[in-house]
Structure formats: structure tokens, C-alpha cells
Specification:
single chain; alpha/beta; Rossmann fold; seven-stranded mixed β-sheet; two-stranded antiparallel sheet; 9 strands; 36% helix; binds 5-O-phosphono-beta-D-ribofuranosylamine
């Protein structure tokens, strides 16, 4: 059984592209079955269209409450029978109604080594703090902000002349590889979560 992935995006979609490319290999063990977004006109949706994938868009402002938006998002992921939902640069927090249905099988990717530098500006905050090593984290989404159990991490060295853009580009190279490797292993081997400890395989 190949795992069915629904990927949610808000921007460039290079992590989505890495997953699409990985899924082209039948040994990968998963397929991207749909791509969702919270906004129109983004490169991530164009990548999905080029790959012939169905897409859906739920804009928060089109719903009378955040809870209704959350329900609509969960309904779309459920309609594609998602085994795993992957937030790949998705710039919205999913809420309780979404997590009721996809808790424990919703992944996020973050451009810092959590629990350091959670939030929207993980790269900028790491750079301002002056750390010499940062990186990326794949985590299981919980109700907190970048607070869920860590599945995998990869370090990236900060260089003296780095600015936010340069550092983020290097992190994204590591992030794409980490996400592809982690999702593939989870799809093929399964996983378990005990408290904060995530284990891939049996
Ligand atoms: C990634 O670094 C992700 O962690 C962050 O935004 C970036 C998204 O990149 N939240 P892309 O849209 O996958 O190219």
C-alpha cells in the first residue's frame, strides 16, 4: 500500500516539488494525491498543475470563522483520503477541528533546529541570535506553534557573511532532502509516537 500524501503550500513550493519528484520513483512508497493552499497565484499551485495534481484553495477570509476554515481544510484532505498531510511552507496554523482528524499524521517542516527559533522567522531569529549552527526540523503538528514531537533534524552551519536569504537557501537544500527522506521512511516503515519521542519503523 502506497501512502497518500496531501501537501499544503503557501508559496514557492520547492518542498512540494521535491516530494513530487521523489514519488516518481515507485520504490518511494508514497504518492502526492492533492495539493491544497490558503491563497491563489502561488508557484506551489503552478507546480501542482504542471504535475497534473488536483488542487484546492481555502482562504481564511472566505469563511465566517477560523473553525469553519479549519473544517473545510480537513474535509478536503479527507476527500483525498490522505494518510499523511504535509505542511510544506504552509503559512497558517491548523486548528483543533483539523487535528481531531489528522492529529498524529500531519507533518510540518521548519527552517530551524526546534525548539530553538519557532515561529514565522526562524531563519532571521537564528541569524540575529548569532548561533553558529542552525538547520531544519520535520515535526508532527500539535496545537502549539512549532511545538510538536520532532521526527527528524539536520544541522546547517551559519557562515560569517550569511544574510537571511543566503542562509535560508542553504537550509532549504537540507530541508528538502530531510523531508523527502523522512516522509519516505514513514510511508514505507510506519511510525509511532510515545510522548515526545517519535520512532520510525517497528
Ligand atoms: C521552508 O523553508 C519552510 O520551512 C518555511 O518556508 C519555506 C517554504 O519553502 N516555512 P517552499 O515553499 O517549500 O519552497
Amino acid at each position: 500500500m502506497r501512502a497518500r500524501l496531501v501537501v499544503l503550500v503557501s508559496g514557492e513550493g520547492t518542498n512540494l516539488q521535491a516530494l513530487i519528484d521523489a514519488c516518481a520513483d515507485k520504490r518511494y512508497g508514497a504518492d502526492v494525491v492533492a495539493v491544497g493552499a490558503d491563497r491563489d497565484g502561488i508557484a506551489g499551485l503552478a507546480r501542482a498543475a504542471r504535475a497534473g495534481l488536483p488542487t484546492f484553495i481555502h482562504r481564511v477570509k472566505e469563511y465566517s470563522s477560523r473553525a469553519d476554515w479549519d473544517t473545510a481544510l480537513a474535509n478536503s484532505c479527507a476527500a483525498y483520503q490522505a494518510d499523511l498531510v504535509i505542511l510544506a511552507g504552509f503559512m497558517k496554523l491548523v486548528g483543533p477541528r483539523f487535528l481531531d482528524r489528522f492529529g498524529g499524521r500531519c507533518l510540518n517542516t521548519h527552517p530551524a533546529l526546534l525548539p530553538s527559533f519557532p515561529g514565522m522567522h526562524g531563519v532571521r531569529d537564528a541569524l540575529s541570535y548569532g548561533v553558529k549552527v542552525t538547520g531544519c526540523t520535520v515535526l508532527i503538528v500539535d496545537p502549539g506553534i512549532d511545538a510538536g514531537p520532532v521526527v527528524a533534524q539536520c544541522p546547517v552551519l551559519v557562515q560569517d557573511d550569511d544574510d537571511e536569504a543566503a542562509l535560508h537557501e542553504r537550509i532549504k537544500v537540507a530541508e528538502r532532502a530531510l523531508l523527502v527522506e523522512t516522509v519516505g521512511r514513514m510511508a514505507r516503515e510506519g511510525w509511532s509516537v510515545h510522548g515526545r519521542k517519535v520512532r520510525i519503523g517497528s
